[in-house]
């Protein structure tokens, strides 16, 4: 082959590579248009690549986890209670059990669109006009036995979200829609949000008493896989939120959700939503990619019948977000997802909620990515068009493998580390197609021309590498350091009743007026705030910086917090807020402390049995009628503080007895009256421990006469009487076992 023939073949390969490059650029641009048929084919392959990348990355992802529990209307629940839907009386009992367990939010992936028949009204209808007196009695008692009314009264006991469904048929208009929660500078009717003509909502009495309502519609792709979730739906010119979004709004105490729009052509598209002050990016239609935690049943599942019967671990439900739904096969609430083809729909909502609260978990495709793909296609395609013809078959194969491996690695890395959903099919398709076609064309060249061709092109500067291997940064260790520390838990008593008496805005102001001075006090006493959970404050001492005499500082902090709460009462009353009290528990011991969590969201926190004991002591303050309780480990390291011994207890879940104390005052501030009372209490306490029941009863009775408002004296009197009737025996260690937190 002469030089002219060689260049003729090269020009053919270069032209072919250029055509292939621009073909894939066109295909990628078509995929951005929902109406393009060829774009749908690319989207199908893109979806398959998305699924593979998502499933393979599950073991590598590091993420934060919300306390989400799924109450499952499973096969066993249906066997014991009967077919679904159940009576609203049963649902009310389920709701009551969840509220009693201390859940934060309850979201129902269930519709209550039809009123339940009232038995009294059924009997009255059956009797007709034959017995007016009986009919009048039945009409009188009807409201008392109405299941819908009974269920509705349980809904506002905690933040509850009911489900609703939107339909495309405009003649389906069932139930009462909630009031809109969205705020937007652009009217929802002018945004490309999915539009539905009909709806199936909840009966009026339930809707009026529910703090929130969200739709349960899914948004499968063209191949039937659920990869994305709609956050908003348009109906009758108004926008309505998804079940997960409404649950996130209530969980984060956000009053409204703002739709953030951006210019797009002659109109606008959706840029994201603002939940509180956090902007959550979405696609142009208000959708987010679902951040699957794992395959089906990656969240804790509890059978509905166990909840109804009270057979639950309250630790699991305390401050948790609960989704009530079904995984039963017969109820058709199973979805096809990248992580499983029989995936419970209720768990889809749970994944979306976790992503909304932790937006860094949401896979995203920013606007610049499509432009970056086009630039990469041009650069990669034209470079390969130049380079591939210069290589032999083996060289082409190795280059294609190298480019493909680099891009797959980059795409996988960007997904795991930055949660970037980088399109893959167009780039991989370009690489494979160019290698195959150009390799076939190059295969016709004879081996003897290789040196000649190479000598021609040696005069040209060789092209740069398309991509380079990315080095994965070192990951910070998640292991905590063990250290002797002091932990403090403070909780507002009767907060549920207080929160029910205030709307969301006033409740936020109420908590802010409490948290601000309390936080300042903790900082003044060298404490570290761990977290705020609802009305609870958790703090610890001796980390990250070492703090000398941290038990005494923590106790002094707790005493100052109680004084601050007393000072706040007058200010709260002036603003029309209800008075409140707090309970504080402290413990000192070995704890694991460190930067816990994922690479995207971390928390510097403490873990361990000593931490749990501090939380239990806070829960016991109400039982004993005291403001602060400290463990004996903390008490022993506070020589400058005067304490009153309260009890020797075994808290729930622990077999080791711990003596607990109430701090009274600093030694240099204690009064004579306080010392006199404390000495009397100490003698009575010693009589109690020595099982001198009658003498102890007499001593505690005198203390009641001296301080009738102290609950501890009354409790110990009652306990002494019980001990007299049922002596504990010679091996009694003086402890009292608590059965609840």
From TrEMBL:
It comes from the Bacteria. CDD domains: CHD (cd07302). The chain crosses the membrane at residues 12-32, 368-391, 398-418, 424-444. InterPro entries: A/G_cyclase (IPR001054), Adenylyl/Guanylyl_Cyclase_3/4 (IPR050697), CHASE2 (IPR007890), Nucleotide_cyclase (IPR029787). Keywords: Membrane, Transmembrane, Transmembrane helix. One of its GO terms (biological process) is cAMP biosynthetic process. It holds the Pfam family Guanylate_cyc. Residues 486-618 form the Guanylate cyclase domain. SMART domains: CHASE2 (SM01080), CYCc (SM00044). GO terms for molecular function: adenylate cyclase activity. This is Guanylate cyclase domain-containing protein. It comes from Pseudoalteromonas luteoviolacea S4054.
């Amino acid at each position: 082959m002469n030089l002219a023939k060689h260049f003729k073949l090269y020009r053919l390969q270069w032209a072919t590579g250029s055509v292939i490059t621009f073909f894939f650029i066109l295909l990628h641009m078509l995929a951005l248009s929902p109406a393009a048929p060829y774009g749908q084919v690319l989207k199908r392959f893109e979806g398959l690549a998305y699924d593979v990348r998502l499933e393979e990355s599950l073991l590598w992802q590091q993420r934060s986890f919300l306390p989400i529990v799924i109450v499952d209307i499973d096969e066993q629940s249906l066997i014991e209670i009967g077919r679904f839907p159940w009576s609203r009386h049963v649902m009310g009992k389920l709701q009551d059990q969840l509220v009693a367990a201390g859940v934060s939010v309850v979201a129902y992936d269930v519709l209550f669109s039809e009123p339940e028949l009232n038995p009294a009204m059924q009997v009255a209808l059956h009797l007709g006009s034959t017995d007016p007196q009986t009919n009048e009695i039945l009409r009188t008692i009807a409201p008392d036995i109405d299941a819908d009314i009974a269920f509705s009264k349980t809904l506002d006991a905690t933040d509850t979200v009911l489900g609703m469904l939107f339909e495309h048929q405009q003649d389906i208009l069932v139930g009462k829609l909630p009031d809109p929660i969205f705020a937007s500078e652009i009217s929802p009717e002018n945004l490309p949000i999915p539009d539905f003509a009909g709806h199936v909502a909840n009966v009026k009495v339930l809707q009026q008493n529910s703090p929130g309502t969200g739709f349960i519609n899914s948004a499968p792709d063209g191949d039937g896989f659920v990869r994305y979730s709609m956050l908003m739906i348009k109906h009758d010119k108004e926008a309505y939120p998804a079940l997960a979004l409404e649950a996130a709004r209530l969980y984060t105490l956000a009053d409204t959700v703002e739709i953030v729009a951006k210019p797009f052509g002659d109109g606008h598209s959706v840029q994201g939503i603002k939940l509180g002050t956090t902007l959550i990016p979405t696609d142009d239609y208000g959708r987010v990619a679902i951040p699957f935690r794992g395959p089906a049943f990656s969240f804790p599942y509890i059978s509905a019948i166990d909840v109804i019967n009270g057979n639950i671990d309250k630790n699991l439900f305390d401050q948790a977000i609960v989704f009530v739904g079904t995984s039963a096969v017969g109820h058709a609430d199973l979805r096809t997802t990248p992580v499983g083809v029989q995936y419970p729909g209720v768990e889809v909502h749970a994944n979306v909620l976790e992503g909304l609260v932790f937006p860094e978990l949401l896979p995203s495709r920013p606007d610049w990515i499509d432009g970056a793909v086009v630039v990469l296609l041009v650069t990669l395609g034209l470079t390969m068009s130049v380079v591939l013809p210069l290589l032999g078959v083996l060289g082409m194969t190795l280059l294609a493998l190298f480019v493909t491996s680099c891009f797959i690695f980059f795409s996988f890395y960007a997904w795991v580390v930055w949660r970037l959903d980088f399109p893959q099919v167009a780039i991989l398709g370009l690489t494979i197609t160019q290698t195959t076609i150009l390799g076939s064309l190059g295969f016709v060249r004879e081996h003897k021309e290789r040196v000649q061709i190479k000598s021609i092109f040696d005069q040209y500067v060789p092209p740069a590498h398309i991509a380079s291997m990315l080095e994965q940064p070192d990951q910070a260790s998640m292991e905590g350091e063990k250290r002797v520390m002091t932990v403090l838990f403070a909780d507002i008593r009767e907060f549920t009743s207080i929160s029910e008496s205030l709307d969301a805005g006033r409740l936020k102001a109420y908590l802010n007026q409490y948290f601000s001075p309390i936080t300042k006090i903790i900082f003044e006493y060298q404490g570290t705030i761990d977290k705020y959970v609802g009305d609870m404050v958790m703090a610890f001492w001796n980390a990250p910086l070492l703090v000398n005499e941290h038990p005494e500082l923590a106790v002094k902090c707790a005493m100052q917090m109680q004084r601050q709460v007393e000072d706040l009462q007058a200010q709260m009353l002036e603003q029309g807020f209800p008075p409140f009290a707090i309970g504080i528990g402290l413990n000192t011991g070995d704890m694991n402390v460190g930067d816990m969590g994922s690479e995207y969201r971390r928390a510097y926190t403490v873990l361990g049995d000593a931490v749990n004991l501090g939380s239990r002591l806070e829960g016991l303050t109400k039982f004993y009628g005291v403001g602060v309780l400290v463990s004996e480990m903390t008490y022993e390291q506070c020589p400058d503080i005067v304490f009153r011994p309260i009890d020797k207890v075994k808290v729930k879940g622990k077999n080791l007895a711990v003596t607990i104390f109430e701090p009274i005052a600093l030694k240099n501030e204690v009064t004579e009256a306080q010392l006199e009372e404390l000495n009397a209490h100490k003698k009575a306490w010693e009589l109690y421990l020595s099982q001198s029941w009658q003498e102890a009863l007499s001593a505690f009775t005198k203390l009641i006469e001296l301080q009738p408002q102290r609950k501890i004296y009354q409790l110990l009197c009652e306990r002494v009487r019980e001990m007299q009737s049922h002596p504990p025996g010679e091996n009694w260690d003086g402890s009292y076992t608590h059965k609840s937190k």
